[in-house]
């Protein structure tokens, strides 16, 4: 008998909705319609702390609260520090803006040639196609526009954006994000992808989405059949904690993988949620089993109201140090900081080079042993001369 590689995947359905039928639960429209988005909805299902109650009231004018029944059912009602709970239920601290925080921490608004299109790197663009998500992450880097309740609004100029892409041949890679593009209907997504694929210099299309985690029911066979017509198409998912990888999520990711869609995962390092080697190791191992390659581990951006969720930079380095060499290379994400104000993604790595001078590099491995790697020694002219003679004289 072979052990299943999925024995640690569980389902929480129907969680806090004991009366709902499996058909409704499995229907993404039911999930969207029954999202938790008011204080009353929340309090009817779990007991809140004073800090959470205040946080929910403050969130209404900043970043809306919205939680799918699927994701909500992963919350431990008896643990205010539950790692799922803290990602989606606001707290009082969210209302405080630390001096280092910004509403647009990655400087996206100043890099938009067309509203909704961020062109920071030479050959690729970030296309913000919607401001809505299935649920809202309290640390969202785009909370200035996402959810539609803040002061700023996303005003994507579709026609202008497509025209910009058509006349900008250096763009070979388009990343659809938002908000969450997979919240669009199949036909709307198909129209967008068709228009992009009609541009000859666009080689590569990616979709950034947390739908497989928040709303796995949306990953229908019909959606997968549509997406696979647009290859090469990649999807970047967003998962932060192993608890998020349920049997439903595993099956949804399996459908995407079976449609030939390579997937990467982007995690945000969050204080008290996933800031340990143990949690990250469990997460990345579960991701690999879902055929998702850990891609980036982000230092949390300096978004307003995030100080209680951010960690020190050293924490991320400690996590990479604890993974690299100790586990499968495919499982190790790249730790990055998005340069505050608009620097783009900057990779950070533990120092494996101890010193480097006079033709030698002193290295250490993951266990702390040191090794020396010398520079190449060029072959001396006499040696080459000798070799040449030998190669011509012999029968
Ligand atoms: C993250 C990002 C991309 C994609 O970066 P990769 O390192 O290629 O994944 C492109 N544009 C912007 C503005 C981004 O923030
Ligand atoms: S899913 Fe992404 S865009 Fe939506 S709230 Fe979360 S981090 Fe922001």
Automatic annotation (TrEMBL):
Enzyme class: isomerase
Transmembrane segments: none
Listed PROSITE patterns: RADICAL_SAM
Keyword Iron-sulfur included in the entry's annotation: yes
Entry-linked InterPro entries: Aldolase_TIM, LAM_C_dom, Lys_aminomutase/Glu_NH3_mut, Lysine_aminomutase, rSAM, rSAM_sf
Reaction catalyzed: L-lysine = (3S)-3,6-diaminohexanoate
Gene3D superfamilies per the UniProt record, alphabetical: 6.10.140.1170, 6.20.120.40, Aldolase class I
Cofactor: [4Fe-4S] cluster; pyridoxal 5'-phosphate
Keywords, ordered alphabetically: 4Fe-4S, Iron, Iron-sulfur, Isomerase, Metal-binding, Pyridoxal phosphate, S-adenosyl-L-methionine
CDD domains: Radical_SAM
Repeat keyword on record: no
Span of domain Radical SAM core: 119-331
Documented EC number(s): 5.4.3.2
Pfam families according to UniProt: LAM_C, Radical_SAM
Entry similarity comment: Belongs to the radical SAM superfamily. KamA family.
Protein name, UniProt field: L-lysine 2,3-aminomutase
Species in which this protein is naturally found: Haloferula sargassicola
């Amino acid at each position: 008998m072979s052990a299943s590689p999925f024995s640690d995947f569980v389902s929480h359905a129907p969680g806090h909705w004991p009366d709902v039928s499996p058909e409704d639960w499995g229907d993404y429209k039911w999930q969207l319609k029954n999202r938790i988005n008011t204080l009353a909805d929340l309090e009817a299902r779990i007991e809140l702390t004073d800090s959470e109650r205040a946080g929910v009231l403050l969130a209404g004018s900043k970043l809306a609260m919205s939680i799918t029944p699927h994701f909500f059912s992963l919350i431990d009602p008896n643990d205010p520090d539950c790692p799922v709970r803290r990602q989606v239920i606001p707290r009082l601290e969210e209302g405080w803006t630390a001096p280092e925080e910004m509403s647009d921490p990655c400087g996206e608004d100043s890099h938009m040639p067309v509203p909704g299109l961020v062109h920071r790197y030479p050959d690729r663009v970030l296309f913000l196609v919607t401001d809505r998500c299935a649920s809202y992450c309290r640390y969202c880097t785009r909370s200035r526009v996402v959810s539609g309740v803040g002061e700023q609004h996303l005003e994507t100029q579709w026609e202008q954006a497509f025209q910009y892409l058509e006349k900008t041949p250096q763009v070979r890679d388009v990343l659809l994000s938002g908000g969450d593009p997979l919240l669009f209907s199949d036909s709307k997504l198909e129209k967008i992808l068709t228009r992009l694929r009609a541009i000859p210099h666009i080689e590569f299309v990616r979709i950034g989405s947390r739908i497989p985690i928040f709303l796995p029911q949306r990953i229908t066979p019909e959606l997968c059949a549509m997406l696979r017509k647009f290859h090469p198409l990649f999807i970047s998912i967003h998962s932060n904690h192993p608890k998020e990888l349920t049997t439903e999520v595993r099956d949804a990711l399996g459908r995407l993988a079976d449609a030939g869609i390579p997937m990467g995962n982007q995690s945000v390092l969050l204080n008290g949620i996933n800031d340990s080697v143990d949690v990250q190791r469990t997460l990345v191992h579960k991701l690999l089993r879902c055929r998702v390659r850990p891609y980036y581990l982000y230092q949390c951006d300096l978004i307003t109201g995030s100080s209680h969720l951010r960690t020190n930079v050293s924490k991320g380095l400690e996590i990479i140090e604890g993974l690299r060499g100790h586990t499968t290379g495919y499982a190790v994400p790249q730790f990055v900081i998005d340069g505050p104000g608009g620097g783009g993604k900057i990779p950070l790595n533990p120092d494996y080079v101890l010193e480097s001078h006079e033709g030698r590099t002193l290295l250490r491995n993951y266990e702390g042993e040191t090794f020396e790697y010398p520079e190449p020694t060029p072959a001396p002219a006499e040696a080459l001369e000798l070799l040449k003679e030998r190669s011509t004289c012999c029968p």
